[in-house]
Amino acid sequence: xxxxxxxxVACAPQGPASVRRNTELSLLVFAALVPVLAYxxxxxxxxxxxxxxxxxxxxxxxSFVLLAHLGVRRFAPHADPLMLxxxxxxxxxxxxxxxxxxxxxxxxxxxxxxxNQLLWSGLxxxxxxxxxxxxxxxxxxxxxxxxxxxxxxxxxALPAFFPVRAGDFGARIWIHxxxxxxxxxxxxxxxxxxxxxxxxxxxxxxxxxxxxxxxGLYLPRGRDxxxxxxxxxxxLLILVFETDLxxxxxxxxIFVVMLYVATERTSWVLSGVLMAGxxxxxVARTEGHVRGRIEEWLHPLAAAPGAGxxxxxxxxxxxxxxxALGTGLGQGxxxxxxxxxxxxxxxxxxxxxxxxTGVIAVLVLYGLLAERGLRTALAARDPFGKMLAVGxxxxxxxxxxxVVGGVTGAIPLTGMTLPFVAQGGSSVIxxxxxxxxxxxxxxxARRPAPGEPLQPGTQx
Amino acid sequence: MSELTLTVMRLGFLAVLWLFxxxxxxxxxxxxxxxxxxxxxxxxxxxxxxxxxxxxxSGAAAPQQRQQAPxxxxxxxxxxxxxxxxxxxxxxxTVALQGQTITLGRAHDSTIVLDDDYxxxxxxxxxxxxxxxxWVVEDTGSTNGTFLDDMRLTGPSPLQPGSAIRIGRTVIELxx
Lengths: 460, 176
Hints:
The complex is a heterodimer.
Chain A: H1 2-11, H2 21-47, H3 54-75, H4 83-102, H5 114-134, H6 145-161, E1 175-177, E2 180-182, H7 188-209, E3 211-214, E4 217-220, H8 226-242, H9 245-263, H10 266-286, H11 288-298, H12 311-322, H13 346-379, H14 383-407, H15 425-446
Helix pairs in contact in A: 2-3, 2-4, 3-4, 3-5, 4-5, 4-13, 4-15, 5-15, 6-7, 7-9, 7-14, 8-9, 8-10, 9-10, 9-14, 10-11, 12-13, 13-14, 13-15, 14-15
Chain B: H1 3-27, H2 29-34, H3 39-47, H4 54-68, E1 82-87, E2 94-96, E3 102-105, E4 112-113, E5 124-129, E6 134-139, E7 147-148, E8 151-152, E9 157-159, E10 164-167, E11 170-175
Parallel strand pairs in B: 3-4
Antiparallel strand pairs in B: 1-2, 1-11, 3-5, 5-6, 6-9, 7-8, 7-10, 10-11
Helix pairs in contact in B: 3-4
């Protein structure tokens, strides 16, 4: 029987797959050791000795991921073996880099963030296990289609109604509560795919089939344009009222990707890109903050009088200083990115200290995680699961693209966290929950067919 | 810390990081290089699989699949290459065998969607048995049973070319 199983794995993504939990465990051990090594190297390079908290750090990280692994073994035994180790590795590396920036005395105002981040990671992994245990069947999420759509809208709109603070740097994406702040836009990454999957499940036939052919493209009928226009308008409203390009692009991008996957029509992608381009162009002409961001993107090295180059310029310098192999962990000067070095610009530190080799490794890891998500979508047997897996992977991949593109100067910069790596509680928690949902979908998709609860024939 | 130690540590960390990436890619190698998405081809065959259009569409779908059949690498000479539905609402439809598991049932995500009142949602599956080099049919808990040459299946049974699988009103044959 085992030979049949392995053969089927090799040829058919839909077939029963071997369980591969032990592969996951050994990869996890590896994934926990790499950050410990990085931690030790950073300490050796900066202080000349092994960092004092090394054992505690290693054990803390190790026990977190071990708990997550046991959760997967218990609640999603057939899930993909690769997602959890990659997420754990990225999270661990992020902790090292944040800890390293904590040690930079030159960074002002500097407060120890690694402890908090470790706490948030623990909370994130707890949520991961809770989702694993409580979400018995992800298809139940379909019932909450409109509820999650509504919740996403409320969360997106909330920051616009809170008083803006001086420390928010223009974008209104935070809610401040008793001394700590939440970025509700992060949670939307899970809610929106749930809503769009449920919605497109119902509407996709109309959106896919009713169209006219024109110049080799299937053009949608006017009235089928309704949903995309509504989402487009909402994303522009976010851009205008919260002046946050990232959330806006993420919101619209997830919808266009899912629309394309649901209908298999390239015309949706084309019209989506056109609409987004037009809308952002129009907003950029009128909105000062957005225009400033675009100016900074076009001229990253233009120095403000008496202040040196802007953030993007600083990030580009740090990436350049890294070169091919980097300066070595703990030996960069990335505190020179004064602002948001630990959150949005953490890629600058990675690039300086590990060079382009390290940055590419990190990007490949993100790519693998997104690939596993899309593979899960291919293997999922029900349309809702397919759509949800595509949406979640797209949200994840788009976020990486937006922040990496911004920091490297490929697209206008926008405040977003690098998933798992950057400092930010909301982000870490959401990403762990996102991976948990993907693993649940993967579990059901890869579960061998005979073990499934079989529905008997409806008629004799 | 000497310069040499720092350089060794720097390169060592990058090597370890890339080693992880390579190990991870190895784990999913079959995804990246080995897999052909043949499942979609079977879907095309059943798109037109409702009773009224089955006959017309099967004519269009079958040649398309025969074109894809030679692309299969480890195709042994004389091995069965396709399933033919000989009776029932889908009669005339051909499904190319390309090493993947074929699921049969009323569920819309089955490889062959049976529009048959006597079929269960997930009725049966046909999969390759590598050790024996043959195809195996197995009933996956159907209500009304799967019959191989008029014998009701109780477990996985090897499938010989020419023998008929009956599910409700549908009869399926393995052909070379």
